[in-house]
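[job 0417] fold request received: Methionine synthase
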Amino acid sequence: MIDLATLTRALGELDEEKVLFMLNEFAAGNPTKAEANKAIEACQKGMAVVGEQFETGAYYVGDLMFAGEVLSEAIKILEPIIGSDSSEKVGKIVLGTVHEDLHDIGKNIFKSMAEASGFEVYDLGIDVPVSSFVEKVLEVKPEIVGLSGVLTLAIDSMKDTIDGLKDAGIRDDVKVTIGGACASYDTMVVTGADAWSNNAAETVNVCLDWVRGA
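[job 0417] inference complete; emitting structure tokens
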């Protein structure tokens, strides 16, 4: 089994070479899906360290973006493992960063993990207007809508989007989950979402429970 603490520390220190070496070696050992998910969670903890360093001024925006790229590469290495039993699509997710927010690292991480777990994900990108969410939901009829946002003003945008689904008469047809730095229990209540999390693996599990009727 991979040393999860060392993996977390390596990503937190932006040691791309060590992170990828450890994960490639780990993947070569035929780990289970559960073990691979633990490795991803360890990487996410490393991203949390990067975020803390960014907040203190020790890291810069470029470091934050670089860490996100390393994490995306890490997920690609593990995708064949966590998606090994997902040949059939389990459901559809319409995903996007809400309007007035341009961040996409967290969204992209969730997308990769959701696809690897068997979901068909329709990624609308960043700064997505309410109308685009409504149109896509009407078009593909997903079970789930994922709203991502980092900035505080994204909370209003999330509420606008969920209200837009209500106005279109399709809010009750989908479950809505929110994620990103602005997401919290209070944000979930204010926006009218069904769930919230800043952990991509946790959110994927919630989505799986939804489509399985758990």
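[job 0417] notes: The chain has two domains: 2-80, 89-211. The mean pLDDT is 90.
[job 0417] exit 0
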